[in-house]
Amino acid sequence: MIDFHLPAMLPDDRGLLVAAHKTASTADEIVVITDDGQRTLVHHPGEWLHYPVYAPSGHLIYQRGTSQPELWATRFSLEERSTAGSPFRVAAPGRGPSVSHDGTLVYLSGGVEKQLVWVDLEGNREKVRSGKRKPISRARRSPLTANVSPLWPSTSGSISGFMTAFAVR
């Protein structure tokens, strides 16, 4: 039995990206589901893959690994709903990616602080006041404003790190 988790819609209703759990011990595939069926886009045997997202730069970005997670990407054709080339590392450590319509990638990176930060295209970091001092598990950037909305985990202390936002162009 295959379980599908962590769905992310492709633009213009072109399909749904999901992490495929084929066994209880791994979720080693990223799958696209369309009106024509489903197709495996990325497969890393025996590893955990999470949070697949489409970037308007023409990339599929996802989390690879659990104890020391990294963000990986591969070229992705939205028209063909297929990948091209070899996957490559985007950030290490990194987890929980989210990409806005303008190409801004937001993700958690390593560290001990629990602080939302904004990173510009030159790599300059600016702390963002969140008002709450809880660990951040994921964030979404509003497509209409420059606001980033962190999502808080239900269990205290489950995730630590910086929430990082930067543009992918």
* Total of DSSP H or I helical runs spanning 4+ residues: 0
Largest sheet: 5 strands, mixed
What is the architecture at the second tier of CATH? 7 Propeller
Shape estimate: globular
Q: How much β-strand is present in the residues?
A: over 45%
Q: Reading side by side through the largest sheet, how are the strands ordered? A: 9-10-15-11-12
Number of strands: 15
Output the CATH homologous superfamily: YVTN repeat-like/Quinoprotein amine dehydrogenase
* Helix and strand composition category: mainly beta
CATH class equals: Mainly Beta
Task: Please give a structural write-up.
This protein has 169 residues and is an all-beta fold. It has a single domain, classed as Methylamine Dehydrogenase, Chain H. 0% of the residues lie in helices and 55% in strands. The protein is built from no helices and 15 strands. The strands form four sheets. It has a five-stranded mixed beta sheet, with no helix packed on it.
List the helices and strands and how they pair.
Elements: E1 3-9, E2 16-21, E3 29-34, E4 37-43, E5 49-55, E6 59-64, E7 70-77, E8 82-91, E9 95-99, E10 104-109, E11 114-119, E12 125-128, E13 138-141, E14 148-151, E15 161-167
Parallel strand pairs: 11-15
Antiparallel strand pairs: 1-2, 2-3, 3-4, 5-6, 6-7, 7-8, 9-10, 10-15, 11-12, 13-14
